[in-house]
Amino acid sequence: MPDSSTKPPVRRFSTEEGEYLVQDEVFLRNDGSTDKTVTTALTFRDFLTGRTVPLRLRRIPEQRAAVTVSAEERKLDSVFMREALLLAREAFDGSEVPVGAVVVKDGKIISRGRNRVMELPDPTAHAEVLAIRDAARVLHTMRLTGCTLYTTLEPCYMCAGALVHSRVDRIVFGAADPRTGSCGSVFTIAGSPLVNHRFRDITGGVMAEECGRILQEFFESRRHGRPG
Ligand SMILES: [Zn+2]
């Protein structure tokens, strides 16, 4: 058995090729390239016998080839982000951390969400979760295939997990979140080859300045004792 005091923690996960134990992460970055930090991975049997084998990354080039967003689609990103920003402003006016999200299908907004954590009160009432729930209700399905979620702030681990479960095609976010961002900033949940959903694309930084500014404005107003 590897000596746990000198090696990184070992995690266990399953792929189509069998069960593996990894000692590092493989990150799939937003542009579809990989940050290959895994040096060794073990099958469970190998782990028990102490034999190491290289992790096969066969599925990752396929994922890279699958990253396709048309120029027309990209052109609309700022249009839909502007709608998400209006919702962030609504959250701001309701003294909530200003984050807004919309779900788009076939070029149309099918649902909207904004942070309502304090209003409800509900710690899971993030903009993305509320937009996902509403989109599923509108489409009468638990699979949001063919949908894109736009959000003003990089999804947290809960929302990134919800996006994996929802099976949306694309995630487009504005400002990166250095505290809980889970599309690559702090954690890679959306876009990880270890989760059971491949996004067609994850794009960050769309109108990042505007999306970040409203958050900054909010936290500054709170520091000065003028919430909202
Ligand atoms: Zn969240």
Main attributes of the structure:
single chain; 228 residues; alpha+beta; 5-stranded mixed sheet; 3-stranded antiparallel sheet; 6 helices; 10 strands; globular; disordered N terminus; binds zinc ion
Notes on the protein architecture:
- The longest helix has 23 residues, at 71-93.
- The protein is α+β, with helices and mostly antiparallel strands.
- It is built from six helices and ten strands, in the order E-E-E-E-E-H-H-H-E-E-H-E-H-E-E-H.
- 33% of the residues lie in helices and 21% in strands.
- Strands 7-6-8-9-10 form a five-stranded mixed β-sheet. The chain has a three-stranded antiparallel β-sheet with strand order 1-2-5. It has a two-stranded antiparallel ribbon with strand order 3-4.
- A hairpin with a 5-residue loop joins strand 3 (26-28) and strand 4.
- Helix 3 packs parallel to helix 6 and helix 4 packs parallel to helix 5 (157-166).
- Bound molecules: zinc ion (ZN).
Instruction: Please compute the radius of gyration using only Cα atoms.
Output: 19 Å
Helical residue percent band: 25-40%
Strand content: 15-25%
How is the largest sheet built, in terms of strand order? Answer: 7-6-8-9-10
Our measurement of the CA-to-CA distance between the termini, rounded to an integer number of angstroms, reads 56 Å
The tally of beta strands, per DSSP, is 10
Structural class: alpha+beta
- Which ligands does the model contain, each kind named once? zinc ion
